[in-house]
Amino acid sequence: MRYSHNFPKTLKQAPKAAESVNHKLLVQAGFIDQLMSGSWTLLPLGFRVVTKINDIIREELDKTGAQEMLMPLLHPKEIWKETGRWDKARDIMYQLKKDDKEYGLSFTHEEIVMYLITKLYVSPKEFPIKIYHFSTKFRYEPRAKSGILRAREFLMKDLYSAHLTKDDMYKYYWEVAESYFKIFKRIGFDVKIVEAGGGVFTENITHEFQVLSDQGEDTIFYCDNCDFAQNKEIFKGKKGEICPKCRKGKMVEAKAIEVGNIFPLGTMYAEKMGGYYNDQSGQRKPVWLASYGIGPTRVLGTLVELFHDQKGIIWPKAVAPYLVHLISLGTDEQAEKVYRELQESGMEVLYDDRDVSAGEKFADADLIGIPYRLVVSQRSGGKIEFKERTASNSELLTLQELLKKIK
RNA sequence: CGGAGCGUAGUUCAGAUGGCUAGAAUACACGCUUUGGGAGCGUGAGGUCGUGGGUUCAAGUCCCACCGCUCCGACCA
Question: Chain-wide mean pLDDT for chain A?
């Protein structure tokens, strides 16, 4: 991509109102734009990062046998009445009326999934059913905040699984937990799996995937010796106490950002919506439902909170919008050739071909945060100057050496 | 919803005790020059001063109401 045609360009200054790091840097570098409080556009650079995040999620979930689909966001009131959540979730659901018919904007999809399963499944042999989609969620937040971390409209990947038995539900539940762990590791996070309550979703203990960060609005307690961790809402002890699980480590208190969560919902949805099957003995039994979410746009913000310096963003390679940032300093013919060759080798290149000063190109490269910076100039002779975003020194390489190094 | 701050050009801001055709920087367009850390000169375009009402000979400036954004709190799968 030629940066001269990238929409939009970086800003000289971050917006005045921005205080959180993800808000400042993502806006200044041209990844996102705010429409109103809690509502954001993913600009081309931001959308590329989210696409990378989604691709990783998709790849790992497909390995568990899950199938991708897409469900609607405009829901009839009646389906939410069936589970009682039209009234119970009134505070977070956008509800609207048009010509005397009432609708809700989706804040989750359990009701729709249960409706689909009840309506479309043919035989118990089809279970377990594992379906997911990436789509927008609308949630009325009393106070949207922290840049893109707490929005009223945001992107979510939600997976739903339906099972004949509780054991089978939990078997897959832990398989997804493992899958989530891999996803976050690939993205670049060191996540903690934290026990939590289920809120408006379930009475059961659920699990959150938390990334430690001072910018987080959740408070968690975790053991410094074993994997025990609980969020503030359900943890009964205090920090510094002996871990109730391993009896060896001490409990640590920390701020964290919740990037994913999983819910073993049980049979409530099936019972309220008629999701039954006949088992071998001819008995009528409800199916077991679980749901699992990851917020790709919140992941985007969390990445910036974690990976940045004074000059800008530092994208992990797995999710960077481009892998290399090519800069030409007054040697356009050579840079054009390098650009062409890099593209032919399948490299994702952002090529700054603008007629602006060297300093501006360097500053923008640091701000945008692509992992590798390449400079072609008089000074580099026939070679290409290679520098990692986090390094202070560069080295001169031929194209072949460069390709070998990066791949 | 309670508290605080803010709202003037695309962006960041200046416009004191009310006073003339509302300014700067930056970004943008054109020309020339320039290319290793946000270059220089010139020309040009760009504004319902958040909205509505009020006070006044006169309001960006004072008063009232409302709207919006950010932060703290309440809330939060």
Answer: 94
